[in-house]
Write a structure and sequence with these properties.
The structure is a single chain. α6 packs antiparallel against α10. It contains 13 helices and 14 strands. The two termini are 44 Å apart. It is globular, with a radius of gyration of 23 Å. By secondary structure, it is α+β, with helices and mostly antiparallel strands. It folds into 2 domains: 148 residues, Phosphorylase Kinase, domain 1, CATH 3.30.200; 271 residues, no CATH class. The strands form 5 sheets. It has a 5-stranded antiparallel beta sheet with strand order 1-2-3-5-4, sandwiched between helices. Strands 12-13-14 form a 3-stranded antiparallel beta sheet.
Length: 451
Amino acid sequence: MESKTAAAQAVMAARRKELEDQENARLADEVASYFRSNPRLRYVEPAGIGRHGGVLLLRENDDGGRMKRRLVIKYSLNPKEDDALRNEHRWLKRLRGAEHIGQLVELADASLELVSLKNAPRSQGDGQTAPGQADAGEAGPAAGNQSADDKDNGRRPTLALEYVEHGTVFQWMRKLYGMGYPAGIPNRILWSLLLCPMAYPPDGPDGAEPRRETIQPGREPSTLTQGSGHLNNVLISKIFPGDPDHSYAPLFKLIDFGRGMEEDSSRQEGVHIGYITNIYAMAQAIETLMVPRQSLPLPNQREIIDIEDPYGNEIGTVASMQMLTNQESDGDLRLLLGRCMAVDNQHVPPLSEVLERCETAVARPAEYYANLPNGAGRYETDGAIRQFFEVPILNADEVGMDIDVTARFLPRHLEQVGFFRRTGNPRTMQVIYCRPVVNAANRPGAGEQVE
């Protein structure tokens, strides 16, 4: 009887999935139709579907029919998610010109000011200003947006984003380990990743040429948190020969600010919370990349581990023991990640120190890692790192790896790690997705051994 019930439930689940896929395909075709009247734009294919929205790949041609650029069109899956799309547009306006952020593209055919949004409920209870109210003068509608009373009536809201070449970090990992890659991610790549969550966006104008985020003396760091920093929201862009940060490892770009919000701008115990949350999320992502074949417990399920910072202070961290003791990884990086995941905000390194340590590390030659145990240093050479990216990414069409094939090689948690953020109590962690609050003050006693 139980087997029949289970079989019936499986059939119903498969049918629900089939109907959901059909509806998603129908909606993708509908959104693609919005752009067919423009002779310069050509719909290429769907580029992905998430929990809240979908993306389409478009090609924009010049007057001679030659490809000018590729664009990504993002749309929400239902009216409940419309507000998140407007929220993303608002924050991307603030992040114009930031090199490590996927950039907004001003496109007249993409529109947010639609009838379906006129009376849409605003986000409540998350501590942020409702999108479209405060900062309206700064964010504003996308260029060319139509009035809510004219031809856009009934259309789904859309926004246009830059096309980033080589997919997400998770897709890269999936292909890489599906092909049998035998080692962890090279340290020189992990250091480059940690450069991404800088909290000083350049505040450029529309269409600003992206430039590197730098520490700006006298200016407070941004309090914006991305809110969904898993590995499918980090894109892999180009390698720039001669660039001190991206000459061998590519530029990484953070995307998806639909759940973005500003942390309380007031200081808590003398520390701004916004950049700490972003650094914490990126450290957690890098931790999973450092030991990709190991399923790590969630941070609120770990013992707090005591480590010593470079200044002789003992601090508590929720970094995993697997990462902290991984001898094939750079000890400086392991210590810095442990500090970025410190329980007490006061022990998190300042942004200026994180940047300085990252810039020093990315300038190290491959020879620095020559004596890593188990021959791990051979994966740190320029040639090995180029091949590391070229095989699964630049030859992605030839790889053709399927997620069913690669599931054996990668733990499921790598796709959507439930990143944690800090709450009012610096010893309390909160899961971003399902948001259970767990007290993390379970420090082992002085005589206890942490296994």
